[in-house]
Amino acid sequence: MGKITPVNKQGIIMDIWEVDKLVIFIAFVVPGFISLKTYSLLQPADNKDTSQQLVDAVAYSSVNYALLLGPIYAVEYSGLQTISPTLYVLFYVMVLLVAPVLWAWAFLRLRKTQLLQRSVAHPTGRPWDFVFSQRMHYWVIATLIDGRQISGRFGGKSFASSSPSPEQIYLEEAWIMSEGGGFERARTDSAGIIILAKEIATLELFHVRDAQQGEEA
């Protein structure tokens, strides 16, 4: 039988933080991780478990290098590291930090095009997120499950939650509805109203074009 050589905890820690292993970690995890986080900021979605995120990060890092293989090859064989170390470092800062952000943004834009949606599902999973991500202003009539109606204005100071958080909407002004179902006037001293989506049966939205139309709605 072979002899087992004990390894102390300090030796393990030093082994993990060896320069070559650290470089491999940065090269094959960091770019993909940046792409994942950028995409999740631009397009919120359900969180994946840590192990799946690590696999995705490595895969996206590999894609990043594949797309930049030409420039990397040109830089490595141009002698830039010797000619201008500063430009050499800046180039790899672009490769590791900037390019992953641009790929995530470009991929999301591509997925939202009509051409790609013919064969690929829209990246936004819920109509709620699709509507309110457009940052437009609306007159809102919320019909609750119990039949009551709440009306108000969704403007620049309003807010709607996004995935993966539960749907909630804050209307910056609560309005009184007229007998004909229109918007009569804002409630006195209204500071807005928060509505939980689980209480909503339907949510009607009307375009806000100007202040005068809002008063006459």
Q: How far do the termini sit from each other? A: 88 Å
Q: What count of structural domains?
A: 2
What order do the SSEs take from the amino end to the carboxyl end, as H and E? HHHHHHHHEEEEEEEEH
Portion in helices = 40-55%
Shape: elongated
Total E-strand runs: 8
* Protein structure class: alpha+beta
The average pLDDT score comes to 81
How many strands, what sense, and barrel or not for the largest sheet? 5 strands, antiparallel
Q: What is the topology, as strand order, of the major beta sheet? A: 6-5-2-1-8
Poorly predicted spans: 1-14, 211-217
Number of helices in the DSSP assignment: 9
CA radius of gyration: 26 Å
* Beta-strand share of residues: 15-25%
Task: Describe the structure in your own words.
It is a single chain. β3 and β4 form a beta hairpin. The model is unreliable at about 1-15 and about 210-215 (pLDDT under 50). About 50% of the residues lie in helices and about 20% in strands. It is elongated and about 80 Å long. The chain folds into two domains: about 10-115, no CATH class; about 125-215, Roll (SH3 type barrels). The relative contact order is 0.10. The protein is an alpha+beta fold and about 220 residues long. The N and C termini lie far apart (about 90 Å). The chain is built from nine helices and eight strands. The strands form two sheets. The protein has a five-stranded antiparallel sheet.
